[in-house]
Specification:
Elements: H1 3-6, E1 7-10, H2 14-20, E2 24-29, H3 35-46, E3 50-58, E4 62-65, E5 69-72, E6 76-83, H4 91-94
Antiparallel strand pairs: 1-2, 2-6, 3-6, 4-5
């Protein structure tokens, strides 16, 4: 897989923006990607040095649609990427704060 297939999108929430000040960035990643692939993809896409990667599989939540119909949102995988202290920050997140 190429880097664009591994990192799907950034996760923009209040909590993830607080982590960006500590060089911790949150992304939605491919379910089949492992920590090593995620680290290499971040280094390739953003030209940064990755210290560590934490991942969590987020299960789909039950949502009601109408009166009796219900379904689940899609399940996805989240990765929190921590950069080395001497690495430059990711510019995309810097514009958000």
């Amino acid at each position: 897989m190429i880097a664009q297939d591994i990192i799907i999108r950034p996760v923009i929430t209040e909590k993830s923006m607080l982590g960006a000040s500590e060089k911790k960035y949150t992304f939605e990643v491919a379910k089949s990607a492992n920590k090593i692939e995620i680290a290499k993809a971040c280094e390739e896409l953003f030209k940064v040095e990755v210290a560590k990667v934490n991942t969590v599989s987020v299960r789909g939540r039950f949502r009601r649609q109408g009166r009796n119909n219900g379904g689940y949102t899609k399940a996805w995988k989240k990765a929190v990427v921590t950069l080395k202290s001497d690495s430059k920050p990711i510019e995309f997140f810097e514009g958000m704060m």
